[in-house]
């Protein structure tokens, strides 16, 4: 049989192919020749054929039939054969194929070979594709090579040990004695791989981390190595753009970050060297920037001094001036993470951050926008809003929704005056009205309603803003509502904040009728306009007949919602005219209900972060029951089910926000359904049919003993069980006791249970026994729910659970429909 062509000739031939089909034909022809050679057990050219097969594999063609030939080459005594055999094994084999287990004995023999290069090949292969079985069998040989004096083998053995630890973590302690002298090596390759091994051990085992901190005194050793790298002169072997071995410096900084996290002593020991690295590293080249970035991350993650943290933030500020977009993006992302802990230091770079809003790169622009909102406070609100409103005016459409939401939140929190607040929101609605969230309209209406002294000014501004322009539908909706509510102030010209305009009743109605017939008006906007016209029938005196005519016209509208409104308003004019003025009187001031607890959840680009709330004392005197008892109906419709809050004996963990309507179309100003009201809330009058008499008689009757309990929720180790009892004084009241247990190894903290029921029920949620669910089922949280079901309907409930677990905020929703019939019949 003629000798097969060489690899170089095969590559040259394949590259001459003009089409994919021609290349496939060449490959198939060569694969057939290689298969024939394998069948004839041709030992002379096996190495050459496997090398060609690996090249074809790299081109994407199947080469699995060469797997056993790789094993034969590994078993050969020639180094050239072993080299190709091991390379083929790393490319063609993995632990999912049983064939790889046949290599175990060959690798073991080669690990004990007299030639270091053969040992190196075996270490590379084991570290690349060794399975857990192979790692268990060969870990002893790897540990021996880790102790050898040959630096070539030690660096490869260290990397192989990393793979062994990843596959079989329980073998970690085997390598502990060998790590003691690794950092004393002068060879940078050994130092680098040793730091990688130590990092892997510290990340995977808290016990190892504590051992290296206390017993091995690892931090001083790493500090010494890092200091030598900084202070050493030019070394051509390790120099990269004028910096000595930046790869080793980065690895050491990462290991220092792990060792210093949540440890005062270790952090204190590395403060000085981190300051030296931050001040002595050259920033003109990307190599220096990489080291500085790792230094910043380490400073921010350990318990470092305040001056050092300011230095780190100043480095990020310099990054913002870099021409490289990647470095600017990294700086903005890092500043966004640190702004909560070092707010004042980041504020110094506010002007540079705002300049990034003008960047052409959309990723940088988005990060700059998020960071700008994080920097807003009561002192800079006017200046920052000016910049952000300019950005909103000129930014791409994909930014407008997030930017508008951020401006609304910041204005609500830090507004210096109500007029400024109203002007700012109106500017947003004028600029990006079609991009704002659905709750922007009711929130602005509530703000206007509560600002009694601004009614005339606001309605005049909105009237002028909507003249002839109905493109921004949310703005038109707010304008229609305000004109209907305060149209008499608009006509009378009572505005004191700016020069009043002269408007007649007919001109006001012309605007609203134009909204009704405009092609740009949505069904919702038309509903606002028709209701506003109806309200004006009690505010205006000369145009009531015109209003009757407009309302009667829409009694036959094809829009069912509009038709229903018109028919009902017509009935008001005809049958109930004596009630019209009372029904359409001006809305009272709306009390805004704040969330219970010190924090609320602020949504920023899909990330959830806690933001402090300014808690305000409750108003004196009793609050209206209809507002104090708001519970969002989560199961259908926009009706509200009352909830009677009870004052807790101890302040529970914050729910982090209201229990939001899951179907999306309910006014979100109601109080949370589950978080108990603070003890300072004034006592409100309670409906007598739910609680009256429960304290003077036995609470439960004997029929409750036959009601089976149910498991309402079981996920991620958290289990919620419901047990049932019936009230002795009112059979329509079902008392549900929830028991929350935790089967995981860590406690669940800040636990909050929230619930909502359909509008035909009434629900009262009492205070929980605790806010911590103990681990390993060693304890439970109990909480009592009282449900009034006067119509004896089947009980349904939607629950929301929030808690912190393993350092992460968890949240889940569930629906409970499997209540036993005895609990509600």
Describe this structure in words.
Helices cover 51% and strands 10% of the residues. The chain has 825 residues and is α+β, with helices and mostly antiparallel strands. The strands form four sheets. A five-stranded antiparallel β-sheet has the order 5-6-7-10-9, with no helix packed on it. A three-stranded antiparallel β-sheet has the order 8-11-12, with no helix packed on it. Helix 12 (218-231) packs antiparallel against helix 13, helix 25 crosses helix 26 (473-492) and helix 28 runs parallel beside helix 30. The longest helix has 20 residues, at 20-39. It is elongated, with a radius of gyration of 37 Å. It starts with 6 loop residues before the first helix and ends in a 9-residue tail after the last strand. It holds the Pfam family Alpha_adaptinC2. This is AP-1 complex subunit gamma. Belongs to the adaptor complexes large subunit family.
* Assembly state (oligomeric): single chain
Output the number of helix runs: 33
* Largest sheet features: 5 strands, antiparallel
| Classification by helices and strands | alpha+beta
Shape: elongated
Termini gap: 91 Å
The number of strands is 12
* Weakly predicted, low-confidence segments: 594-704
Give me the Rg, rounded.
Answer: 37 Å
- What amount of the residues lies in strands? 5-15%
The pLDDT mean sits at 82
Binned, the helix content reads 40-55%
Family: Belongs to the adaptor complexes large subunit family.
Keywords: Coated pit, Cytoplasm, Cytoplasmic vesicle, Golgi apparatus, Membrane, Protein transport, Transport
Region (Disordered): 600-630
Main location: cytoplasm
């Amino acid at each position: 049989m003629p000798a097969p062509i060489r690899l170089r000739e095969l590559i040259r031939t394949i590259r001459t192919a003009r089409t994919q089909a021609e290349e496939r034909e060449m490959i198939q022809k060569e694969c057939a020749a290689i298969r024939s050679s394998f069948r004839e057990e041709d030992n002379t050219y096996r190495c050459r054929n496997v090398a060609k097969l690996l090249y074809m594999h790299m081109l994407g063609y199947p080469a699995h039939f060469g797997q056993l030939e790789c094993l034969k080459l590994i078993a050969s005594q020639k180094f050239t054969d072993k080299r190709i055999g091991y390379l083929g094994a790393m490319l063609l084999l993995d632990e999912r194929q049983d064939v790889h287990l046949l290599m175990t004995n060959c690798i073991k023999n080669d690990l004990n070979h007299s030639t270091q290069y053969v040992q190196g090949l075996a270490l590379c292969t084991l570290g690349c594709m060794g399975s857990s079985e192979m790692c268990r069998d060969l870990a002893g040989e790897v540990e021996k090579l880790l102790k050898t004096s040959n630096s070539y083998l030690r660096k490869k053995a260290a990397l192989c040990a990393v793979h062994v630890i990843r596959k079989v973590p329980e073998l970690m302690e085997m390598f502990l004695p060998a790590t003691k002298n690794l950092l004393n090596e002068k060879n940078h390759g050994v130092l680098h791989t040793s730091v990688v091994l130590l990092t892997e051990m510290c990340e995977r085992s808290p016990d190892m981390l504590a051992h290296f901190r206390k017993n091995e005194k690892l931090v001083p050793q790493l500090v010494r190595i890092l200091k030598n790298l900084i202070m050493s002169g030019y070394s051509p072997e390790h120099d990269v753009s004028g910096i000595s071995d930046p790869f080793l410096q980065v690895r050491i900084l990462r290991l220092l970050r792990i060792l210093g996290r949540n440890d005062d002593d270790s952090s204190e020991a590395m403060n000085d060297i981190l300051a030296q690295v931050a001040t002595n590293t050259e920033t003109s080249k990307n190599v220096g920037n990489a080291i500085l970035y790792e230094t910043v991350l380490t400073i921010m993650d350990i318990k470092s001094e305040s001056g050092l943290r300011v230095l780190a933030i100043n480095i990020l500020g310099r990054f913002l001036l870099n021409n490289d977009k990647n470095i600017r993006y990294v700086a903005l992302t890092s500043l966004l993470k640190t702004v909560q802990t070092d707010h004042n230091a980041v504020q110094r770079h506010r002007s540079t951050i705002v300049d990034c809003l003008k960047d052409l790169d959309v990723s940088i622009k988005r990060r700059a926008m998020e960071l700008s909102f994080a920097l807003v406070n009561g002192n800079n609100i006017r200046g920052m809003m000016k910049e952000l409103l300019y950005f909103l005016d000129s930014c791409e459409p994909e930014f407008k929704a997030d930017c508008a939401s951020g401006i609304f939140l910041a204005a609500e929190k830090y507004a210096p005056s109500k007029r400024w607040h109203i002007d700012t929101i109106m500017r947003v609605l004028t600029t990006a009205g079609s991009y704002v969230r659905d709750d922007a309209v009711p929130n602005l209406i509530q703000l206007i309603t509560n600002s009694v002294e601004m009614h005339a000014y606001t309605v005049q501004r909105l009237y002028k803003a909507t003249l002839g322009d109905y493109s921004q539908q949310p703005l038109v909706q707010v304008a229609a509502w305000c004109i209907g509510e305060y149209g008499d102030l608009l006509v009378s010209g009572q505005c004191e904040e700016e020069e009043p305009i002269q408007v007649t009743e007919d001109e006001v109605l012309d605007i609203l009728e134009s909204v009704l017939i405009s092609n740009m008006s949505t069904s919702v906007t038309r509903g606002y306009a028709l209701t506003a016209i109806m309200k004006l029938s009690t505010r205006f005196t000369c145009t009531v007949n015109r209003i009757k005519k407009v309302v009667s016209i829409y009694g036959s509208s094809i829009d069912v919602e509009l038709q229903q409104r018109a028919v009902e308003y017509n009935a008001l004019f005809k049958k109930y005219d004596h009630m019209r003025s009372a029904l359409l009187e001006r809305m009272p001031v709306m009390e805004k209900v704040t969330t219970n607890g010190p924090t609320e959840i602020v949504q920023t680009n899909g990330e959830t972060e806690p933001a402090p709330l300014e808690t305000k004392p409750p108003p004196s005197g009793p609050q209206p029951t209809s507002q104090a008892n708001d519970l969002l109906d989560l199961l259908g419709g926009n009706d509200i089910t009352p909830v009677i809050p009870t004052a807790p004996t101890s302040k529970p963990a914050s729910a982090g926000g209201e229990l939001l309507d899951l179907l999306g179309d309910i006014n979100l100003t109601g109080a949370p359904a589950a978080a108990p009201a603070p003890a300072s809330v004034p006592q409100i009058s309670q409906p007598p049919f739910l609680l009256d008499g429960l304290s003077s008689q036995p609470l439960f009757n004997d029929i409750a003993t036959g009601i089976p309990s149910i498991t309402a929720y079981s996920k991620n180790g958290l289990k919620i069980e419901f047990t049932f009892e019936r009230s002795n004084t009112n059979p329509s009241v079902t008392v549900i006791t929830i028991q929350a247990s935790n089967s995981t190894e860590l406690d669940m903290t800040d636990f909050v249970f929230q619930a909502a029921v359909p509008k035909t029920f009434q629900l009262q949620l009492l205070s929980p026994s605790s806010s911590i669910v103990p681990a390993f089922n060693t304890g439970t949280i109990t909480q009592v729910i009282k449900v009034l079901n006067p119509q004896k309907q089947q009980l349904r409930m939607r629950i929301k659970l929030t808690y912190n677990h393993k350092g992460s905020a968890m949240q889940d929703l569930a629906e409970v429909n499997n209540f036993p019939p005895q609990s509600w019949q």
